[in-house]
Design a protein that fits this description.
Order of helices and strands: HEHHEHHHHEHE
Strand order of the largest sheet: 1-4
Distance between the termini: 38 Å
Helix content: 55-70%
Shape: globular
Number of helices: 8
Length: about 210
Amino acid sequence: MNIVLTYIRNMAPYMAYAVPVIWIVRLIAVRRLRKSHRSTTVCHEAGLWCFLLFMAGLASITVIPRSADGGFTGFVGMKGFSRINLIPFRIIVDSWKALSDGNWIYPMINIAGNIVMFMPAGFFTALLWKGESLKKAAFAGFFFSLTVEICQLPQARGTDIDDLWLNTLGAVLGYGVFWLMKRYRPLWIPGFRVRETSGQQVKGETK
């Protein structure tokens, strides 16, 4: 729990920094929607804000060169080459060894953490925009994860191929949450989508 709270404390300032940027971008986007005879909704804006703030916090602990305790990780030129793992499923073996030694923190962070923190990518992309599909959710998770790994390459921190499939799995599970919502609460979904001001079919993409 202390580790989770540490990550939250590190994410919070950057989420706060993102507020004015998101506010300005959304004001511009809403004006553009009105010009194209579309309108946003309270639920769409709330969901979008949650998603963007979370992504800002996620970037602060994955892209910005900082460690979990808030320290500066540095770059490759400062501390040598990053640890790059290109062996698939190595994290399973390492986690099993860690559990055998009584270390449950390692698998919690590197397996559960990598899955859970990308669930919003699959959930919100399906909830907020029309044309949702499992394939699109998986692609969103993979794309975001690949972006993170590429940004981590010049940093003195680990770059792991296992992160790609774990993050993608997280996005797929996030889509699964959306699927359950769509099946059992289908009337909720349109409220999270951009609408035609004329009341016609809901538009699914904001620009």
